[in-house]
Amino acid sequence: MRNLVWGLLCFVLFYSCKKESGCGYSDNHIVAPVAEQQAVKDYLNSSNVTTALKDSSGLYYEIMDGGSGSGAPGLCSQVELSYTGQLTNGHVFDQATTAFTLGATIEGLRQGLPLIQKGGHIKLYIPPTLAYGSTDVKDNNGAVIIPANSILIFDITMNNFY
């Protein structure tokens, strides 16, 4: 009985300390391993990208235009954006104008999009741990469109958020 009470207490303390938004999405505070951060840095160096900054999570980014307005999207925000997603070999795996709830997407976008405001333009270099990790992403026919452990590059314009 004592172990059960202790276990419940630890559970409650752990979950009460997690920062959670009102829509049910939590800040995960995921940090990419040093090896992945180095792989992104090596890619940037080999591509002569000298203006990218590194976030504490290991995400690299270039803000081309910070946008205008006040505030930035949060995890509960509906974001409307135009983007191109590609792999480091230049293969474009997706290109669209779309809308989604920020908290419902990959960690790299959750951490990168709040760096800009409406009308902003950003380029994100996302290590695998902040994207799809060791999982292949496949299309409806079973073909791999994003191989496991891929660094993703997103060129994004934030059209709007609310």
Q: Keyphrases for this structure?
A:
162 residues; alpha+beta; Chitinase A, domain 3; six-stranded antiparallel beta sheet; two-stranded antiparallel sheet; 3 helices; 22% helix; disordered N terminus; peptidyl-prolyl cis-trans isomerase activity; EC 5.2.1.8; PPIase_FKBP_dom
CATH architecture: Roll
Tell me the number of structural domains: 1
SSE succession: HHEEEEHEEEE
Q: Whole-Å distance between the termini?
A: 48 Å
Q: State the shape.
A: globular
Q: Please tally the helical runs, counting DSSP H or I stretches of 4 or more residues.
A: 3
Instruction: State the secondary-structure class.
Output: alpha+beta
Helix content: 10-25%
CATH class: Alpha Beta
CATH topology: Chitinase A, domain 3
Unreliable parts: 1-20
Strand content of the residues, in percent? Answer: 25-35%
> What is the count of β-strands?
8
List the helices and strands and how they pair.
Layout: H1 2-17, H2 34-46, E1 53-54, E2 60-65, E3 78-87, E4 92-101, H3 107-112, E5 121-126, E6 137-138, E7 144-146, E8 152-161
Antiparallel strand pairs: 1-2, 2-5, 3-4, 3-8, 5-8, 6-7
